[in-house]
Automatic annotation (TrEMBL):
The protein's name in its UniProt record: Ribosomal subunit interface protein
Source organism: Aquicella lusitana
A matching Pfam family: Ribosomal_S30AE
Gene3D superfamilies (UniProt xref): Ribosome hibernation promotion factor-like
Length: 126
């Protein structure tokens, strides 16, 4: 069972923000069901050189044997959320593809239990 932790700093949390994050997280779970943890942090950095607010969205997901991290910024919070989840999705797909290639490149040969090796035959006849 995967858990989702949402942290919102420097702005007020809203049900709309949580809805968008949960929607994107559900899509990630459909792509890869072995996500054990997902942490989303939304922040408004104070020291930036742009006029207006810049929203920063960091996503950290944990899958068996690996941790994937994405950080995106935008003047629009929902674009930052979308772009950060899109980056995580690409990393996840790359991980799945790499895992599939490795598995297919080095397949484990099937074992035929009906055949006996010479060593086994020798031990049986001694």
């Amino acid at each position: 069972m995967s858990s989702l932790q949402i942290t919102v700093r420097s702005i007020s949390d809203s049900p709309t923000i949580e809805y968008h994050i949960r929607k994107h997280f559900a899509k990630l779970n459909r792509i890869y069901s072995k996500i054990s943890n997902c942490r989303v942090i939304i922040d408004v950095p104070q020291n930036h050189k742009h006029k207006g607010k810049i929203f920063s969205v960091s996503i950290d997901i944990t899958i068996p044997g690996k941790e994937l991290i994405s950080r995106k910024q935008s003047q629009n919070l929902y674009i930052a959320i979308r772009n950060s989840f899109a980056a995580i999705e690409k990393l996840l797909e790359k991980h799945i593809k790499r895992k599939t290639i490795f598995t297919n490149k080095y397949p484990i040969p099937p074992v035929d239990h009906n055949t006996q090796t010479k060593d086994t035959n020798m031990m049986m006849h001694n």
